[in-house]
Amino acid sequence: MTQMILIKNSKIFDFNESGFVKKDLLIENGKIREISSNLKIQDVKKIDLDGCYLLPGLIDSHMHLINYGRQLSSIDLSAFSNLIEMLEFLKENTNSQVLVARGWNDDLLDRKPDRNSLDIYFADKPVILIRKCGHLAVVNTALIKMFNLSKLRLPKIDLEKGMIAEKALNKIVTLIETNENMGIYIQKAKENLLSLGITAVYSNDIILDKAEELTKVMSKIDDLRVFNEITVESSSDVDSIYLKKLIRKYTDFFDVSSIKIFADGSFGARTAALREPYKDDPKNTGILLRTDQELSEIFSRCKEFKINISIHAIGDRAIEQIIRVLQNTKLDGQNIRIIHFQIADENLIKKVKESEIRVTIQPIFKLSDRILIEKIFNVERKKQVYPFTQLKAHNILLSSSSDAPVESPNPYIGMKILIDEGFSKIDALKTYTLNPAKILNVNNVLGSIEKGKYADFCVFEKDPFKGLKEDPEKLTPDLVFLNGKIVFGKRINYGH
């Protein structure tokens, strides 16, 4: 049955016009059928927006939907500066069988938590406290016994201190969760994202061991567009994904779009692979998580099966490795995007441009990592950190994201940071709309308000660019439409 809605008296953001234009909008079965001035159609539902402003639905092109929902459902440790106060608070405010909390930051805490400090407060309850970056965690003795971690053959485990990182951490978190939890976390995350005007996300949630379970859970989503990735460890994993046909479009709202691999770690854990040592750890240049040969085998399989690749690469040594292996395997750079890209010189950026690799950045990191950057880099290296303007200057296809729950998914903070860096407001908006849609190869249906595209857009009573300039943290839409339906509304009685 045909469902039609006529949106009257709105100011629609038009990239071709570089601004807002006063137009009416006719929606049919979730897509935009017509955009024109003073549309007059009888016998359809009408919504008079009385001069409100419309932006395209925003896209967060790298986050962790389930982890973000988990954080919203659990205790946030990011505000604590005293370890004892943090542990006492946790002891008094938790009643779950297994305590999972996230957000502690050793750059702010008076000392880093370890197994012994957790055991003092939690002798019997299994505990895992995940660092803000998501790449490092501390566990207590009860959790080590619960999962028999002493017999798990995983790298980056220091059981004496209770420290686990990278692959080992991902494995343990996966063991803890249930499908019921996943559904709760997804719902929590969706509510918050929609309230910000985010109607689509490119998320990294799926590991091969639980891929079929998670795709079933996510196939039920019908009020947020989720493009997901499957994290892989080896070329044989790619074979398995191909044979199981896991990478495909499941519904109009859920799509598994690519595989995800990790090339290195993070600045905070001092595991991002750098060309030069960390200033506060002169013998450490971070870690490459794969050899050139291992990376080459994954690239070759993806080339054979025509699978797109997202690569976590923070350090310049990791980015350099990707370029080197890409040249040897002759994989099309347009099938690859690098996520993070947090330090690089001009020459490396030129090589990325030549390879046609796409890049996804997190503008908010420039704000949140200020103290950390001072600790780990000298004056010359600091000039190469977060090279947003250099990437744009080389016309690299650039999308923005939050990496939530590492940081807030608020896209307006990210846009404001880019504008302060010299981006035009239109170019900043593109990194949250058209550009990620191009990276996902869905710019024919997403990324802008145009005829034939999904009716996904945000409604603002006042000019959002003025709100962006004044206070981006407080800027939120008044209404959000997804597939032509209102999915969030602070006010739903505009006009008629």
Explain what this protein looks like in three dimensions:
With 496 residues, this protein is of the alpha/beta class. It folds into 3 domains: 4-57 and 452-488, Urease, subunit C, domain 1; 66-176, Roll (Diaminopimelate Epimerase, Chain A, domain 1); 179-440, Alpha-Beta Barrel (TIM Barrel), CATH 3.20.20. Helix content is 34%, strand content 24%. It contains 19 helices and 20 strands. It has helices at 65-73, 83-92, 115-121, 141-146, 166-176, 179-195, 211-218, 235-244, 292-305, 316-329, 346-355, 364-368, 370-376, 379-382, 388-393, 411-420, 425-430, 434-439, 464-470, and strands at 4-14, 19-28, 31-36, 45-56, 58-63, 99-104, 127-131, 136-139, 157-158, 163-165, 198-207, 225-231, 254-262, 309-313, 336-340, 358-361, 398-400, 457-460, 479-482, 485-489. The strands form 3 sheets. An 8-stranded parallel sheet has the order 5-11-12-13-14-15-16-17. Strand 12, helix 8 and strand 13 form a beta-alpha-beta unit. Helix 6 packs across helix 7 and helix 9 (292-305) packs across helix 10. The mean pLDDT is 92.
Pick out its properties.
about 500 residues; alpha/beta; Urease, subunit C, domain 1; Diaminopimelate Epimerase, Chain A, domain 1; TIM Barrel; 3 domains; 8-stranded parallel beta sheet; 7-stranded mixed beta sheet; about 35% helix
